[in-house]
Amino acid sequence: MSSSPDNGAHETVDRLFERRVEPVNQILANAENVARACHAVARRFHEGGKLVVFGNGGASTDAQHVAVEFVHPVIVGKRALPAVSLTSDVATVTGVATGSAEGLDEVFAHQIRHLADPGDIALGISTDGNCANVLRGLRESGDLGLLTVGLVGGDGGAMADSGTDHVLTARATDPRVVKEVHVTMYHILWELVHVFLEQPGALTSEVTV
């Protein structure tokens, strides 16, 4: 007996939701790594650092989203924290991209060299972990002494082996799902950072989960 059109639609809907379940479960399975990253970020904020965020395409808007979440918390009473997105200044991005011999690959590293301080946090976002300018930005950040954090998808790409301090991976091959999981990840980041900052005693030792 052939399947009815309704059955086909139900199966499609089921698959649509199923492929979003495992990546979220992976966040739970790697809760310790996520918590350690959040703890490290909170320590840098506690010591006076700021967050510097960057990414390309859709990730550039994620970078702006992350920055505004920290600078202007949507939850009343939560502490505002210094953060800047390197994708927000179109004049600087396009100026560096067209005025540098290395072009687009240099847009984040150049800004980091001139805007960041050693006590800051660099957060690079890439759906596949292979964006050359995000990798270069994180490498420059590490060389300058910043704490480096990467949000990636799939198997982590080149970022997984880049020496980035903390790499948080959305284990999905569909870039749409990766982006959805990234939103969850950086909301967790925001929330746990505030949890640690509200308990300053927790910032003097390593986090345990």
Write structural notes for this entry.
The chain has 209 residues and is an alpha/beta fold. It has one domain (5-204): Glucose-6-phosphate isomerase like protein, domain 1 (Rossmann fold, 3-Layer(aba) Sandwich), CATH 3.40.50.10490. Helix content is 53%, strand content 12%. It is built from seven helices and five strands; from the N terminus they run H-H-E-H-E-H-H-E-H-E-E-H. It has helices at residues 5-29, 31-46, 58-71, 90-99, 107-115, 132-144, 175-197, and strands at 51-55, 83-85, 121-125, 147-153, 166-170. The chain has a five-stranded parallel β-sheet, with helices on both faces. Helix 3 packs parallel to helix 7 and helix 5 packs parallel to helix 6 (132-144). The chain is globular, with a radius of gyration of 18 Å. The termini are far apart. The mean pLDDT is 90.
Which key features would you list for this structure?
209 residues; alpha/beta; Rossmann fold; 5-stranded parallel sheet; 7 helices; 53% helix; D-sedoheptulose 7-phosphate isomerase; SIS_dom; isomerase activity
Give the gist of this structure.
With 209 residues, the chain is of the alpha/beta class.
CATH class: Alpha Beta
Q: Would you identify the CATH architecture?
A: 3-Layer(aba) Sandwich
Rounded radius of gyration (Å): 18 Å
Class computed from helices, strands and strand pairing: alpha/beta
Q: Could you say which overall geometry the principal axes of the C-alpha atoms support?
A: globular
Oligomer state equals single chain
Total number of helical segments?
7
Low-confidence parts lasting 5 or more residues at pLDDT below 50? none
What's the total count of β strands?
Answer: 5
Write the H/E string, N to C: HHEHEHHEHEEH
Mean pLDDT: 90
CATH topology: Rossmann fold
How would a textbook summarize the main sheet?
Answer: 5 strands, parallel
- End-to-end Cα distance: 52 Å
| Fraction in helix | 40-55%
